[in-house]
Every structure is written in C-alpha cells, then in structure tokens.
Fold this protein.
Amino acid sequence: MTKLNTKTDAQITWEQEMVIATEIMGICEKDELIQREHTNFLNYVELKRSFHDQAEDMVRWITKEQSKDHGLVQSFAYFMDKGYTINTPDRYKYRSAVFNDLAEAIKNDSEYNIYDIVRRWDMYYHS
C-alpha cells in the first residue's frame, strides 16, 4: 500500500478548516453569542473529523485483514467487526464507498489519500 505523502487540495482545505474551528472555539469560550452563530460549522468540522478518523481506522483494519489467509476485506465485515451486527451505521452507503476505495487502493498498492477519498464521497452523498 502506498499512502500519498504530498498534501492534496482536500488535505490543505481540511487543515484550514481545523485552524478556523480552533480560532472560533477560542472566541466561543469568551462569547456565547458567537458560539451559537458558528454551531453548524463546528458540528460540520467534528463530523468530518470523525470521518477522517474512521477512514484511518479502515486502513488499519484492511491492512490487518489482508495479511490473513482467510481475510475478508469487505465493508460489511468491517462494520460487523465494529459492532454493527444488526443495524447499519449512520450514512452506511457513504462509509462503504470510502471503505471500498481504500480497500481497492491498498489491494492494488496504489497511491491514495484519505482526505481526497473522504472529500470525494462526501461531495457525492452530501451535496
């Protein structure tokens, strides 16, 4: 597997969003009115952070499963392993698309960037 080491537009944008969110949080501690005005943006950044964190977890899981002789590298197996045995997680189609792109890139030893993959599927499913 080859993780893309150069920063892409998606990663640069994410880092800028994190800086803005940090600045807003600093101001929000002093002014509750500002916090209410920026709640949607802060919630968006937190949700996006959770998607990036999950994509990184998917990479670790995929890599571990591929190393097994009997490894089943399918999105449903990942989600079942994470405790979703009866119901699917929120935004299942989106999360599965991210998983499938990561699995394909790792299987083919292609370059990939989780920020690009998360952003591409986020734009597809949530625009």
